[in-house]
Design goal:
Length: 511
């Protein structure tokens, strides 16, 4: 039976335009989704937009628009970005869709029926920018006298009637969950943070607001709208057809990975499992919080106006090199800095030199000196055996790394084969063998083509278009590109297309 795999990205707020940070989480999820599909899983990959809440209502007012108009405009941009960065998502959910609102109402009713919701008054600090409530002890007061959230957002004191989710009832069960499933929250830094937050005591959570109206109405209390996070988290279920348990997509629940930014791990690792426990639904298997990119050393922010849009980067560097850089530059889960210099240096060293040159050297040599067809296997030398051994061990190593969302490590493993192949070609020197030992030359070229094939297959999730071209150049049939085909041999004598370069070198224009 094929195994199902369900992975999600955060659904992004539509009060602003998409930027490289959003693209990052989405591309990471896409790499995992593509990897799992190639590895024989039936995958559901979900992304979308989070369109309700006070923040959106305020942004719309500031822009002189109706909330719906602003949401439509920016949701269209996020949808366009998903295409631009070549996401293989199976669905794109907008929280303003009826299917979502229906599912939210149903989950609310399930929580209510379980006795997990009660009516009261909310009084406390709220940061609209974070769409989050904070305790006094979590706030800092700046030199300007303004109280701010741990993420720097100004907070205000609010008091209004509100429904509460009895989160405090779940403290022990949540701690037991983290204990029983050490991999539930990753990376470890996020896990520790969440555990200490839950240990310090959970307060019941205000889950409805009456002071604005841009949200999903509370069933039976139309003057309340749901707290945007309750609405947002539910997307992971409503996209599968919840509450219709007979919908075939519901078979994908529970999610295998909710991939999120580290600042929203708490919502996913505390509120969400508690809600699911209350509703009697299975819990997701893993919450992974990715780290944060700064840009040229600065935090991306509206006030600095330095949020990097994706399209200009793609225009200049190409999509696949950008996808590669994002996952190669730092361990997934860590923070990192997006700088032009680092980008250009990675692309030149690892893509243009290491991999691009390797492919070019092999394929153009075959075109010129080996009749432009796939060389046949020869008698293996020790050097051949040891290069093949690296290639044969690679899929398991990469699979292991991808399962841990260790994208950088997966790429490093693949690059070990790239570098070993470069060392091999230098040592075996087919250009010398051409005169001295043409039979051996053919065998060497074949060993190199085999290594390139494995590299091309395993890099497909990261750089789908470019690797499709590489596999075309090796005459690998379209139906021989999944991981079940990893040990299918290349076809002796297959005609190879005229070689083309895969990765250009970038030269920074001088001012
Ligand atoms: O939080 N570096 O939406 P959002 C890395 N709607 N990742 C970044 C980033 C950066 N500089 N900036 C953004 C929300 N991200 C909620 C989510 S989910 C039920 C609701 C990524 O538009 C990262 O994944 O603020 C982060 O969590 C997400 O974008 C925040 O997007």
């Amino acid at each position: 039976m094929t195994k199902r795999f369900y992975i999600t990205t955060p659904i992004y707020y539509v009060n602003g335009a998409p930027h490289i940070g959003h693209a990052y989480s989405s591309i990471a999820a896409d790499v995992m989704a593509r990897f799992k599909r190639l590895d024989g899983h039936e995958v559901f990959f979900l992304t979308g937009t989070d369109e309700h809440g006070q923040k959106l209502e305020k942004a719309a007012r500031d822009a002189g628009l109706e909330p719906r108009a602003l949401a439509d405009r920016n949701a269209a941009e996020f949808r366009a970005m998903a295409r631009t960065i070549n996401l293989s998502n199976d669905d794109f959910i907008r929280t303003t869709e009826d299917r979502h609102k229906r599912g939210c109402a149903a989950l609310w009713q399930a929580l209510d029926a379980a006795g997990a919701i009660e009516l009261g008054h909310y009084e406390g600090w709220y940061a609209t920018r974070d769409e989050a409530f904070y305790g006094e002890d979590e706030l800092t007061t700046g030199a300007d006298g303004v109280k701010r959230s741990p993420y720097g957002a100004p907070v205000e004191w609010v008091r209004e009637p509100s429904f509460f989710f009895k989160l405090s009832m779940f403290q022990d069960r949540l701690l037991a969950l983290y204990e029983a499933h050490p991999g539930f929250i990753q990376p470890i830094s996020s896990r520790n943070e969440v555990i200490s937050f839950v240990r310090s005591g959970l307060r019941d959570l205000s889950i409805s607001r009456t002071s604005f109206s841009w949200g999903v109405p509370v069933p039976g209390a139309p003057d309340h709208v749901m707290y945007v996070w309750i609405d947002a988290l539910t997307n992971y279920l409503t996209a599968l057809g919840y509450p219709d348990m007979t919908d075939p997509r519901m078979a994908f629940w529970p999610a295998d990975v909710h991939l999120v930014g580290k600042e929203i791990t708490r919502f996913h690792a505390v509120y969400w499992p508690a809600m699911l426990m209350a509703a009697g639904l299975p819990l997701p298997r893993r919450i992974f919080g990715n780290g944060w990119w700064t840009v040229e050393g600065e935090k991306m922010s509206k006030s600095l106006d330095n949020a990097l849009p994706v399209q200009p980067l793609i225009d200049e560097f190409g999509l696949d090199p950008l996808r590669f850089f994002l996952l190669r530059e730092m361990p997934f889960g860590n923070d990192g800095d997006f700088s032009r210099r680092a980008l250009i240096s990675r692309l030149n060293v690892e893509l243009a030199n290491d991999l691009g040159n390797l492919a070019q050297r092999i394929l153009s040599f075959i075109a010129k000196n080996a009749g432009g067809t796939m060389p046949a296997r020869g008698v293996a030398t020790e050097a051949d055996v040891s290069l093949r051994a690296i290639a044969e061990a690679l899929p398991d190593r990469v699979r292991g790394a991808i399962d841990r969302l260790a994208f950088q490590e997966a790429l490093e493993e693949i690059w070990k084969l790239v570098r070993a192949s470069n060392a091999y070609i230098d040592r075996e020197a087919p250009w010398t063998l051409r005169k001295s030992n043409p039979t051996r030359m053919v065998a060497v070229l074949r060993v190199l083509c085999e290594a390139l094939r494995v590299i091309g297959l395993l890099l497909q999730p990261f750089m789908p278009d470019t690797m499709a071209r590489l596999l075309d150049l090796l005459a690998v049939a379209p139906d021989a590109r999944d991981f079940a085909s990893l040990d299918r041999p290349l076809t002796d004598g297959a005609a190879l297309p005229a070689p083309v370069g895969l990765f250009p070198r970038f030269i920074e224009p001088t001012a």
